[in-house]
Amino acid sequence: MTGVQTCALPICPEIAAATTFEFLLRERVSRLANFRHTNFARVRDVERVMHGESTLAVVADRVPGARLSDLLTVAEQQLQPLPVEAAFALARQIVPALAVMHEEARDACHGAVAPERIVVTPEGRAVIVEHVLGAVLAQLGLSPSQYWKELRIALPTTAGEPRFDRRSDVTQLGVTVLSLFLGRPITDDEYPTQMSALVHGTYGLGGGFEPFPEWLQVWLGRTLQLDPRRSFANAIEARDAFVSCLEHTDER
């Protein structure tokens, strides 16, 4: 680890106190120990710490830069949406990266894909962080509304208990990419009820008044599972469709 800077992410006491949370977290860190990708921050270990009220922390490689959520918030406040070119550049990294995780890490899912858990480096590289939380978050037993409003975790609307799996990753990917192309964060009240209106509305790329290209509307609809019969089952399917669409359009 010589020359590698690490940081410790304190786990909220309310989360860490959940039944079997620490055991499941350590098991997940061990399972993903060999997963390497330039668009994912490497996780090193789980440690006992004393950080305020926190007693548990995830140790990972430090990633310089700013959270995508902060960049989108500032862009909205300054009435300067993220440039369309930058949105495409980040989406071209995030979508394939999540697909690689689904390909290489058997049965694994991120569980909490969101602008809040993506760091953009000064060089413009998108780095997905905190991916070891995954299905461990199901231990919290929150409602879908609570997961979204309290933790910014978008979950598909399904009957029964909220599920953390690859399909939920795809939904979260859709929310993240939608936010990218709108050039602003998705608000508390917009998910899930306003997804169709945002995808098919008149506020398109970068917050402009032209709607999204038809191919992007279709792709976002399938990631957000607006029609469950046509939704992507995993990020691999979402990536293949995204790349295919880009190859046949004039988009950046």
What does this molecule look like?
The protein has a three-stranded antiparallel β-sheet with strand order 1-3-2, with helices on one face. It has a three-stranded antiparallel β-sheet with strand order 4-5-6. A hairpin with a 5-residue loop joins β5 (118-120) and β6 (126-128). It is globular and about 50 Å long. By secondary structure, the chain is α+β, with helices and mostly antiparallel strands. It has helices spanning 13-16, 21-31, 68-77, 84-104, 144-151, 166-182, 195-200, 214-223, 235-247, and strands at residues 6-10, 43-51, 54-61, 66-67, 118-120, 126-128. α4 (84-104) crosses α9 and α8 (214-223) packs antiparallel against α9. The mean pLDDT is 89. The chain is built from nine helices and six strands.
Main attributes of the structure:
alpha+beta, 9 helices, 252 residues, 6 strands
Summarize the structure.
With 252 residues, this protein is α+β, with helices and mostly antiparallel strands. The chain contains 9 helices and 6 strands, in the order βααβββααββααααα.
The pLDDT mean sits at 89
Structural class: alpha+beta
Termini gap: 38 Å
N-to-C series of helices and strands: EHHEEEHHEEHHHHH
Rg, rounded, reads 18 Å
Major β-sheet strand ordering: 1-3-2
Helix percent band: 25-40%
Number of helices: 9
The coarse overall form would be globular
Q: Please state roughly what percent of the residues sit in beta strands, choosing from under 5%, 5-15%, 15-25%, 25-35%, 35-45% or over 45%.
A: 5-15%
User: Which spans have pLDDT < 50 for at least 5 consecutive residues?
Assistant: none
Count of individual beta strands: 6
Largest sheet: 3 strands, antiparallel
